[in-house]
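Hi all, posting the design record for the shared folder.

TITLE: backbone redesign
STEP: 1 of 1
STRUCTURE INPUT:
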C-alpha cells in the first residue's frame, strides 16, 4: 500500500517514522526540508509538493491548524492529486466546522475522508503508543486500520461523521488544560503555606489523581520544565478557542474554558508563547506573588 504523509512536526515526524519502520512505502512532504531529509535517510521518499505526497492510496496529514491544513491539502493541490477511491486520514486537531467542510470537499472529489486526531505527546508517538480518535465511514476506517495499528495502541471509533472525532479531541484537550490549571492553582495554594509544590504534586499523582495527565504534567510543573515544549501554549490556546467555538455551535456552555483561554493568553503575553502549556503554572505562581 502506498502512503503519503504531509506535515512533519514533532508529532508527524514520529508517526511517519513508525510507518517507514513497519515497511510502508511512504512519500513525505513538509514545508521545511530538514524533517524530510531525516525520514529519507530512514527509507522514505521525498515529495516535491503536497500534491506529490498525495500520489498514494492513503494520505496522512498532521498539520498545526485549519489554515495550515487548507494550505497544503486544498491550496497545495493534495486533494486534486488524490486518485478516486483514495483515503485521506487527517490527524490534525481542527475545528468542527472545518472538518465538515473537508468531508464535503473530499466527497465531491470522490475521495474518502477520515478524521483521526490522537492523544499522546511526541514520546508516545515515537513509541507507537498513541490513542487514535477516529470518525468517518466505517468501511474507510476498516481500510486504514492496519496502518493505524502501526502507529497507535488503540483506535477509538466515535461515529460515521468525521467532525465527531474532532469534537472528542477538543473535549479531551479541554480536560487536559483543566487538569493543568487545577494542578497549577492547587500547588500554588500549598506553596503559600511553605509546602513545596513538587511534594504536593508527587502526592496528588500517587493518590487521588494517579493518572497519566496528572503524573506527566505534574512532573513538568514540579520541575518547572516548560522548554522545549511538547505542546506549546499557543497550540493550547488554539484548541481552547476551537472548543469554545464548537460548544457555542452545539449550545453547550463551557464557562471554565473561558478562564483557560484568558490564562493561556496571560502566559503568552508574559513571554510564554513557546513554552509547554504546563506553564499555566507560572501564571498561577506570578499572580500569587511567589515568583
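Okay, here is what came back for every position:
SEQUENCE:
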Amino acid at each position: 500500500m502506498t502512503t503519503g504523509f504531509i506535515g512533519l512536526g514533532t508529532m508527524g515526524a514520529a508517526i511517519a517514522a513508525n510507518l517507514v519502520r513497519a515497511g510502508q512505502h511512504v512519500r513525505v512532504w513538509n514545508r521545511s526540508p530538514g524533517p524530510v531529509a531525516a525520514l529519507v535517510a530512514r527509507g522514505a521518499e521525498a515529495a516535491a509538493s503536497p500534491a506529490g505526497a498525495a500520489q498514494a492510496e492513503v494520505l496522512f496529514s498532521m498539520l498545526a491548524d485549519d489554515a495550515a491544513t487548507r494550505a497544503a491539502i486544498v491550496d497545495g493541490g493534495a486533494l486534486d492529486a488524490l486518485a478516486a477511491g483514495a483515503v485521506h486520514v487527517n490527524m490534525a486537531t481542527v475545528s468542527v466546522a472545518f472538518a465538515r467542510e473537508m468531508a464535503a470537499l473530499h466527497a465531491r472529489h470522490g475521495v474518502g475522508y477520515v478524521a483521526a486526531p490522537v492523544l499522546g505527546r511526541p514520546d508516545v508517538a515515537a513509541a507507537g503508543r498513541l490513542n487514535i480518535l477516529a470518525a468517518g465511514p466505517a468501511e474507510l476506517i476498516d481500510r486504514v486500520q492496519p496502518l493505524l495499528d502501526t502507529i497507535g495502541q488503540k483506535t477509538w471509533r466515535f461515529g460515521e461523521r468525521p467532525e465527531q472525532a474532532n469534537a472528542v479531541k477538543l473535549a479531551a484537550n479541554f480536560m487536559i488544560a483543566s487538569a493543568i490549571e487545577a494542578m497549577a492553582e492547587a500547588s500554588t495554594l500549598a506553596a503559600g503555606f511553605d509546602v513545596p509544590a513538587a511534594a504536593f504534586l508527587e502526592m496528588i499523582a500517587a493518590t487521588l489523581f494517579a493518572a497519566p495527565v496528572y503524573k506527566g504534567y505534574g512532573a513538568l510543573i514540579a520541575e518547572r520544565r516548560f522548554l522545549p515544549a511538547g505542546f506549546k501554549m499557543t497550540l493550547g490556546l488554539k484548541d481552547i478557542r476551537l472548543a469554545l467555538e464548537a460548544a457555542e455551535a452545539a449550545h453547550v456552555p463551557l464557562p471554565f474554558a473561558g478562564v483557560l483561554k484568558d490564562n493561556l493568553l496571560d502566559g503568552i503575553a508574559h513571554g510564554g508563547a513557546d513554552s509547554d502549556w504546563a506553564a499555566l503554572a507560572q501564571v498561577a505562581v506570578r499572580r500569587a506573588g511567589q515568583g
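COMMENT: The longest strand covers residues 152-157.
Let me know if anyone wants the other runs.
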